[in-house]
Amino acid sequence: MRVLVIGGGGREHALCWAIAASPLLTKLYCAPGNPGISAHATLVPIGQLDITALVDFAALEQIDLVVPGPEAPLVAGITDAMTAAGIACCGPSMAAAAMEGSKVFTKELADAAGIPTAKWERFDDAAAARDFITRRGAPLVVKADGLAAGKGVVVATTEAEALAAVRDFMETGTLGAAGATVVIEEMLEGEEISLFALCDGIDALPLGSAQDHKRAFDGDIGPNTGGMGAYSPAPVFTHAAETDAMDRIIRPALAEMARRGTPFRGILYAGLMLTSDGARLIEFNVRFGDPECQCLLLRLKSDLLAALVAACDGELAHFDLRWHDRSALAVVLAAKGYPTNPARHTPIGSLAAAEAMADVHVFQAGTEILNGALVSNGGRVLTVCATGPDLASARSTAYTAVAKIDWPDGFYRRDIGWRAL
Prior knowledge:
CATH superfamily of the largest domain: ATP-grasp fold, B domain
Shape: globular
Number of strands: 22
Number of helices: 13
């Protein structure tokens, strides 16, 4: 098979690494990719949102399967465009990608499908939102309706924080059109978990659980980020809890989407809160998380490419996945100043020393080659991952590998996995 992966982050590096190991693969491309991905795939200088150019390239190179990594091209309709050109694409249609593209859509879907979620209200008018906050009181969660690159959710413990979020999103317009409508919902209490499933429109296979670390600094303080680390599996999320969440959250969502004539195919990511009343839905995403993807794929025994093809072909009812009985932990190295103003073009050394360690994989994200040297070119720059017989050993190995990397202008959290350990 000839395969094109779309994206250029750590998630896409892990996807290319896993797909490159498939005996089904003939040729692998990645657009636009990054220097680390070039070890597994031929890089194509096309942006992830240049849908016309991506379709033209896929047709010219007789691509058999397209695998979009990020959410933006899915919400923009990359799957529809590829399908119209007769090219298989493992991702939801634009209509189905609204499960991530619109918070209002997801909340309405959950209500229609009987999926347990937080009580919520929609607001298109800032004055009405402020009035609701004043009447309801804190704590509350304020969410921008549209895609906001992880910056559209404010967990407000005070009324002032909630009112400030409404002002920023709806009046100041810090998120553009994405913040014109907001969802305000009750704040759920419990432990947050990510559950992933591979879907073919009707059936779904669980891809396991992970726990992300969104805050920038140790102890879960500082600004929200795209994710500073993760581990899988999450011990708090038992096999029984996973089975329950598949039955009460994932499969009802698939059934409702199929009923609407917009079946969901691809990777479905359910952000869950494990409350005293069981798992409740926080959000849906329509792709792998980053860095959760890196952890999950290190534990996958089965051929990822074969699984993606089965999802596209509607054959998951006859498919199964095998997993290593090991833990995986990922530590993100970010550029100083991230997430607001990350330093760029700072040299990164001794990467080979970390990569030479047993049970360690370093996935690149915001990197580039400048004057023959590897330098940073983004906020989240590297994901250092390790596996082990248990989470403690995976964590120890990961941090030993991190210490070998020479990058004075980077920073990382030193407490990834603290909830479990």
